[in-house]
Structures are given as C-alpha cells and as structure tokens.
Amino acid sequence: MKLKIGFILLCIFLLRGLPADGQHVAVKTNVLYDAFANVNLGLEVGLAPKWSLDVTGDFNAWTFSHGRRWKHWFVQPEARYWFCDRFAGHFLGLHLHAGQFNVGGVDNGISFWGTDFSKLSDYRYQGWVGGLGVGYGYSWILGRHWNLEAEIGLGYVYARYDRFRCAGCGEKVETDKPHHYFGPTKAAVNLIYVF
C-alpha cells in the first residue's frame, strides 16, 4: 500500500506542469489482482486524441501457509486505440508481457488450452515468461477524475522454467523447459484516477 501511495504522489509531482486543456494521464489499480493480494499499479499516458500507452506492473512476494507460494513480478505495456475520446468508451489494445515466477503448492484442477495448471499442486515451477496479445475494453466515466475500466485480452505466452519436486524445496527434476500457451493474457477491472 505504501508503494502505491508513493507512486501516486510521485506521478502528481511529475505531472503538475501538464496543460489543463484535457486529460493526459491516468493512474490505476486492478481490483481483481488486489483481491488476490497482488500489488499492482498502472500508468496510462495520452499520446494523441485517440491513442494512449498503458503500462501496468504486478508484484507478489508472498509465501502462504503449508509451503504454498505464488511469487512473481510482471509488466505489461499496451498501446490503445480509443473509438471515442481517450479514457472513455470502447478501446482495442495491443500488449506485450514479461516477467518471472516461482509458483508451487497451489491446489487446483484447472486445465485448458494445452496448459495443465493442476500440476502446480505437486510441483514448484520457477522461470520467466514473455509474449503478446490483443485486448478489448470499455471505460466508464464515474466523475470528473474517476473512471472504472474493464478489459479482457487473448494472446500468446512463451515460458522457460525449472521444475522442482515439491512446492517449498525438493530436487530439480527438469531444467530450462519451454512451454507455449495460447489463451487469456489479461483480465482487468481497473479503478482509475485521471489527471
């Protein structure tokens, strides 16, 4: 929370000299990620009347009880085309994503589109990801400075990882393994403050 407040104050300090003729910058948090204890923050900058650049980051350093862990950092820049004015209404986005992860001991039965996430129950995976995708979203104006935005994205993720026998420890059973994923790459419900 202190990281978010510090970042918002830094943005206000750096952006105080922008012209007052329109909205140029937005600071946001994804409440879906917040619900899962993922520290996240986004900054979106207007580039032209119908174009903006959104950069979001996500960080989780927690180790949960009984050896469960979901540690990662992730960054996702996105170029957006707005059908009306920027920061309002429908938009399409083209995003990149990159990050690192250390995940294991997460009980689940999820398997879809060629990826078996249920393996996270018995093993720990540590590695990096990169990829790209497309997104569609809509931003509702709530007030002079506040918006609510929803977005869904689909795309491709390439990962390289090492696999370990148990979630908290264990010997390495695979090294530098590749994995290809096609499917959802973004889900967001953002609470936004627009300058």
What can you see in these coordinates?
With 195 residues, this protein is mainly β. The protein has two helices and ten strands. The protein has an eight-stranded antiparallel beta barrel. A two-stranded antiparallel ribbon has the order 6-7.
- Helix/strand/pairing class, anyone? mainly beta
Please give the alpha-carbon distance between the first and last residues.
Answer: 21 Å
From N to C, what is the helix and strand string?
HEHEEEEEEEEE
Given as residue ranges, the uncertain stretches (5+ residues, pLDDT < 50) are: 17-21
- Relative strand content: over 45%
Query: How much helical structure, as a percent, in the residues?
Result: under 10%
Average of the residue pLDDT scores: 85
Shape: elongated
As a whole number of angstroms, the C-alpha radius of gyration is: 18 Å
Q: What is the strand tally?
A: 10
Number of helices: 2
